[in-house]
């Protein structure tokens, strides 16, 4: 009923204007006259009516567009909600840039959750970009938000995500004629600062330690989810060293490292990170701001793919490895575990 009344109100003014124009044309003697002044007056009347109708339609469309943007913004914020600024002693910041104009989010996803097993993080990239990838993003994120708390190890979380993606793809594409997959990085930061990870075709993260920026890689990743089944055997997480006090862990999607400028040159992600780590305070937001600004300049504000950036910094004053549960590797340079 409210919607009907709104439409009636929107149509009322155009109907009145149109009726006034028709009445003038049929009933006013000046409208029937053939002289130049009469024709000019008639033209002015119809020009005023037409202008009024156009302006009214424009205002109505503008109001409708603003309402749609508010609804879309609320839905997108609920789906890819900003992470809290601090999670279990870790400072957190995230940035997401959609390649589709007008969209706040696209085919990239991330989430940070404090669980009894440690802080768990997911960073993923759905095949394709923009609004069309939102269904898959929703399926993966919804599953992670439950599995991160329910499963004791990361392997269990990954299997849950694989099953959720399979169900979603069967429902969306029952004929199986569309190949869709998700690259995924699962990270667990334990209470002693140890970093464990499972990687399905996703870029490995960078660790920021003082002015040094190092990409933490531990062998070849599994294939992206949905492309091939995961192995039937166990899915042991691999070690990526420790996150000491003052360290940062930078996760990203390949839209960042694959971004090109007008001359086809790739974005120098590691060099920009090193510059930001030297010049900015050791908090996530300024570092991400530097990287995002550099990406914007590099792509001239028009990235070819969605981009997601996530930075976690250990803001605790006491090194995690010194809290009584650390392992000796923290004092030995935190070399990543060899490939499985």
Structural write-up:
With 340 residues, this protein is α+β, with helices and mostly antiparallel strands. It folds into 2 domains: 2-74; 82-332, PPM-type phosphatase domain (Phosphatase 2c, domain 1). Helix content is 41%, strand content 20%. A 6-stranded antiparallel beta sheet has the order 1-2-11-10-7-8. β7 and β8 form a beta hairpin. α1 (2-27) packs antiparallel against α3 (36-79), α4 packs antiparallel against α5 (154-172) and α7 packs across α8. The longest helix has 44 residues, at 36-79. It starts with a helix and ends in a 26-residue tail after the last strand.
> Please, what is the average pLDDT?
79
What share of the residues lie within helices? 40-55%
CATH C-level category of the largest domain: Alpha Beta
Radius of gyration: 28 Å
* Annotated CATH architecture of the largest domain: 4-Layer Sandwich
Name the beta content range.
15-25%
Query: Main sheet?
Result: 6 strands, antiparallel
Number of helices: 8
What is the N-to-C succession of helices and strands? HHHEEEEHHEEEEEEHHHE
| Secondary-structure content class | alpha+beta
> What fold name goes in the CATH topology slot of the largest domain?
Phosphatase 2c, domain 1
The name of the CATH superfamily of the largest domain reads PPM-type phosphatase domain
Principal-axes geometry comes out as elongated
Q: How far is the N terminus from the C terminus?
A: 63 Å
Number of strands: 11
Tell me the strand order in the biggest sheet: 1-2-11-10-7-8
Low-confidence stretches: 319-333, 335-340
- What is the total number of structural domains? 2
